[in-house]
Design a protein that fits this description.
Blueprint (H helix, E strand, L loop, with lengths): L1 H17 L8 E8 L8 E11 L9 E4 L2 E4 L1 E2 L6 E8 L6 E8 L1 H12 L11 E7 L10 H24 L1
Antiparallel strand pairs: 1-2, 2-6, 3-4, 3-7, 5-6, 7-8
Amino acid sequence: MKIFYYTILILGSFIYPAIGDICKDPKIDTNSYTTIDGMVISNVACIAEFSVDCKANKDFILIADKEGRQLPAVKSLDNKKYQISWTEDAENFYGGERGVKVYDEETYAAVKKAHRNNEDVKNIPSAFFLSLYHRGIYYGPWVSTEFVATAISVLLFYIAYSAKADLMA
């Protein structure tokens, strides 16, 4: 009879950790960063740094899905914050609110399966949504400073030449 109890105890110790904890009602604190200087970049870098506060005090493996691309959430050294980063083409990346859905291990496996079978992933619930605001790409002033300097020089030359012509007449 003792062997039976020991067997159940050993099997239970292997099965219990395999049952995944799910983060119910997560509290998310997010900071986001994007590059905006369009004069020197061809791709916009997006970085979302966030912390997840769950009732279950457990480290989660989080993965974001951005239009079929897998974006793993990298955990910081202090084990309190995660970071997801990706790049987008600057020509097609307009200002405004955007974001990514973040999944845990189990739900991301369902997302991968849906992508593999060409199914719709909208029905698969994400753990949470990370919102990111991009204010737009700055491509420089509308009029270059060289043009302004040249126009002022021509205007000053015209005023000086007209004043000289009036004095000579």
